[in-house]
Each structure stands twice: as C-alpha cells, then as structure tokens.
Amino acid sequence: MCEIFIRANPQSYECQSRSLRLHGVATSIRLESLFWEVLEALAQRDGMSVGQLISRLHDELSAYRGEAANFTSFLRVCCLRYLMLQGEGRIPADQRVPIGSLDARAVLDGLPPSWAEGARATSRAAA
After folding, report:
1. SS3 68
2. Which of 69, 80, 115, 126 has the most CB atoms less than 10 A away?
3. What backbone phi and psi angles, to 5 degrees, belong to 87?
4. What total of structural domains would you count in the chain?
C-alpha cells in the first residue's frame, strides 16, 4: 500500500516560495511543488496567471468569511477539492472547460457536509 505514496517524486513535496502582490502588498506563499502545479492548472483553465487566481481566491474568501485566515492551508484545500471533485466527475476533466463556467450549486449539491458548507446532502443511492 505505502509504495503508492512513497514512490512520489521527491521534487513534488519540496517547498517553493513565490512572491506576489495582494492589493499592492508584497507577500510570499510557501507551498509544496505539487500544489503549485495544481494551482497552475486551475489558473490556466480560466485564462489567469497563478497570481491572478490567488488574488481572486483571496478576495472571494475575504468577502465570504470577512478574512482570509490560514490562507496557505486554504490554497492546499482548494487543490485537494479540485482533484477530488474532478475524481467524482463533478468538475470535467476537460481542461478547456473553465471552472468559472460551472454551476457551483450543481457541483456542490449532494456532497457530504465535510466537503461543502451548506451543501444539500443526498444519499448516493438517490443520485
């Protein structure tokens, strides 16, 4: 079992820091390389740079929550959610389909509460 995980390319879990500006303020974000790859794929789907995607996520999180606490962890969870939702078939694997074009309610509908706040849970049998 563990071979599946331990045979990961060591470069994928090396940390990388990237500098960017959020509302004119210089900041640095440190993530493992694999998370940067997922963020790049997400940004590319919607025709953005990684910096633009991160700024947008920061702004939308701040607007929704009133703050962007623990933002680096939030970015890791975004990457994991993206891959999990793709695996569930809720986000198309076709990279030409922008994330912004998807109906968020339809993507989130029926997910367990641990996956989506306020999502209407449905049983798998009913889906």
Report:
1. coil
2. 115
3. -60, -30
4. 1
pLDDT tens digits, residue range 71-114? 999 999 999 999 999 999 999 999 999 999 999 999 999 998 88
| pTM score | 0.86
Own/partner contacts of 19-26, CB < 8 Å, gap of 24 or more, are 20/51, 20/54, 20/55, 21/51, 21/55, 22/54, 22/55, 22/58, 23/55
pLDDT of residue 14: 94
Amino acid found at 100: G
Whichever domain contains 82, its CATH number is 1.10.3990.20
Structure tokens at 108: 């989130």
> Which pair of tokens denotes residue 84?
């999990």
Would 84 be classed as within a structural domain? yes
As given in the structure block, the two tokens for residue 89 are: 């078939």
Question: Are 23 and 56 contacting, i.e. CB atoms less than 8 angstroms apart?
Answer: no
